[in-house]
Structures are given as C-alpha cells and as structure tokens.
Design brief:
alpha+beta, seven-stranded mixed sheet, 343 residues
Length: 343
C-alpha cells in the first residue's frame, strides 16, 4: 500500500510539472507482469528481480528530478535594476516619522528588496505637514543629502538653523543631528538620501552648513553626453571642482538633467557606481539594461517614476514628448562598497 501511494504521488508530481508519468508506466508494467515471476521470486530470495531493480532506479531518478526542479523553480536571481512609482509608494514608519511627518521609502531601508542596494542606505520622500516637524535623527556611519521639492520650512542642524524653500539642497555629514520644521502655512516635501560610509573612512566635518539653491547652479553640458541634455551639478565628492557643493565621501554626484525635446544623455553604464534616476516633470522613455545584442531596454516613464541601476547596468533617458517641452530628471550617483583589499 505504501509503495502504491508513493508511486501515485510521484506520478501526480510528474503530471504537475509537465513531464511524462514514467513511474506510472513502470507501475502499470509491473501490474501486467507474469504472476509466475512473482511466485518464483518468493522461493528464490537470492536472485534480484529485474523489474524491481528497474522500478527503484527509475523511482530514485524521478524523485531526484522532482526535488531539483522544485528547488530551481523557487530560486530567484537579483534584478539588474529596480523600478518604483512615487505616487504608488505607500508611507512607512521610519526614523524621521512623527504624527506630522510621513516617509515614503523608494530604495534601500524600508523596501522589500533593500539588499539589492549596497552603498545607498535609503532614498525616499519625506513630507512634513504645515506646522509639523520631523523626528531629529543622526547617523554615525552615513552622510545624507536633502532636496526640498516644494514648500517652506526650517532646518535644524546641530547648533545651526537655516530657512528652507523649494529648490534648496544640502549636505549633512555623519553624526550630525538634524531635523525639519515645516512652515505654518504649507507642507514641506523633501527628497532625502543616505549613503553608507565604510568603516575606517576618515571624515572631516565642514565648518558650516553646506546649503544652496538650484537657481544658483548654472546649466552646462558634460563631456561624453550630447548637447540635447544640460546638467546642473549640485553636490559632488570632496575632490570636485565643478559641483556647487563638494563634500561627498560615498556620494559621487547629485545633479539635475534638463532634456530638450528629442534629447537624450546617451545610454551608458558605470563600473564602480550605483545610480538613481527620478523623473521630476514631463515624460519619456527610461533606459534600463540591455540584451546580448546591445539593444537597450526602454520603459515608458512619467512624473514620479524612479529607477535604481546596479553596477554596469545600462542607464539613460529619452525625451520623446511631441510638444516642445523640456523634461527634468534628478540623478544620484554613489560609490559601490567594494571589499577592501586584505593587507
């Protein structure tokens, strides 16, 4: 009875995965075997029965196949890029959350695939209600950037205070306590990103708060990209001579791209950096990944769409709007935390 049940279960499993029920065939063949063979075997236990050997060999083979196929079906691989929609992202409790402050995690902490993002601790949108405040936070092993998308407020950063308005961006070094209060008349919506600073990195704190506004940053072309896209280089690394603020240790660049109608930044990839694109206005096609034939993957993109690109993933954008409208995309690039070479 047990043997029959095992065969039936194996046969059902084979049918579910679309393979021929070989075990069932063997069982049927055994049912049709000459009874005299069975009687002979009862009196001669020293002689292995051929059909029994075949049966168990096939049973073990097919059972192993079922196990391996199940494991293969359950196994997944990490994607080369992630895609989110800000409008469809739900708020989640976070370090900055209060009764008057909400946070939408887009990439990194608070998302189900946070392990895909390596050097970026968090990337998301914080909204502080009018008259409300975020919870003050500080991170010993992270540097952060804030960009005010809309509204007004006040930044408290250690012993310094600074009024905020739409377009303001700032660099916040590690271990510095900071928070935002919204004005009494309007909400303050802020994009924030944190970056993990490797242990042992020497960090020097800037003597003053590093804050500027997008309106203060000129638009320019960047080598390697066509003139149909203009860049505003907001924050770069400590060695930068072209960004408005040079302060990043892991952060390589915070920038805004302005695409003319029909413009592109030439799809490309980075071998040592992770990258994020967020569509601020307009629409077009986001490029993410490419095939063996070099054909880039294109995806329709609208306001609020965000993409995270892993190392060597093809990234780019096309402004294919019919009207003579410009499209703006926020970009963030940061160093991948490669293992330190052993001494």
């Amino acid at each position: 009875m047990l043997m029959r049940l095992l065969i039936e279960r194996l046969s059902e499993g084979q049918a579910r995965i679309g393979s021929p029920p070989l075990v069932g065939s063997v069982f049927n063949a055994m049912n049709q075997a000459d009874p005299r063979d069975t009687m002979t075997r009862r009196f001669d236990r020293s002689v292995p029965h051929q059909s029994s050997i075949v049966f168990w060999a096939l049973t073990i083979t097919i059972f192993s196949s079922l196990v391996f196929r199940t494991v293969a079906a359950d196994r997944t691989v990490d994607p080369t890029f992630l895609r989110r929609s800000l409008s469809k992202t739900a708020t989640q409790p976070s370090d900055v959350s209060t009764a008057t402050c909400r946070f939408k995690p887009i990439f990194g902490s608070g998302t189900p695939d946070a392990q895909i993002v390596k050097g970026i601790a968090r990337f998301g949108e914080m909204t502080v209600d009018a008259g409300g405040a975020s919870k003050p936070v500080q991170y010993a092993g992270e540097e952060e950037i804030y960009l005010v998308l809309e509204g007004r407020g006040l930044l408290n950063c250690e012993n310094q205070k600074a009024p905020l308005r739409a377009g303001d961006f700032m660099y916040i070094p590690p271990s510095v306590k900071h928070g935002i209060l919204a004005s009494s008349s309007e909400n303050c919506r802020v994009l924030l990103a944190g970056f993990k600073i490797p242990e042992g990195t020497k960090v020097s704190l800037p003597p003053k708060l590093l804050l500027a506004n997008i309106d203060e940053v000129p638009k320019q072309t960047v080598s390697g990209h066509p003139p149909s896209v203009l860049y505003q280089l907001l924050i770069g690394d400590l060695r930068s001579t072209r960004d408005k603020i040079a302060a990043g240790h892991v952060l390589s660049s915070l920038y805004i791209m302005e695409f003319a109608t029909g413009g592109t930044n030439f799809p490309h990839h980075h071998e040592t950096e992770e990258e994020i694109y967020l569509l601020l206005d307009g629409y077009g096609e986001m490029v993410a990944g490419s095939g063996l034939n070099g054909v880039e993957g294109r995806y329709p993109a609208q306001v609020g769409d965000a993409y995270f690109f892993r190392l060597n993933c093809t990234a780019g954008f096309y402004n294919n709007q019919n009207s003579n409208s410009k499209t703006h995309v926020l970009g963030v690039r940061s160093l991948f935390p490669f293992p330190m070479p052993s001494k």
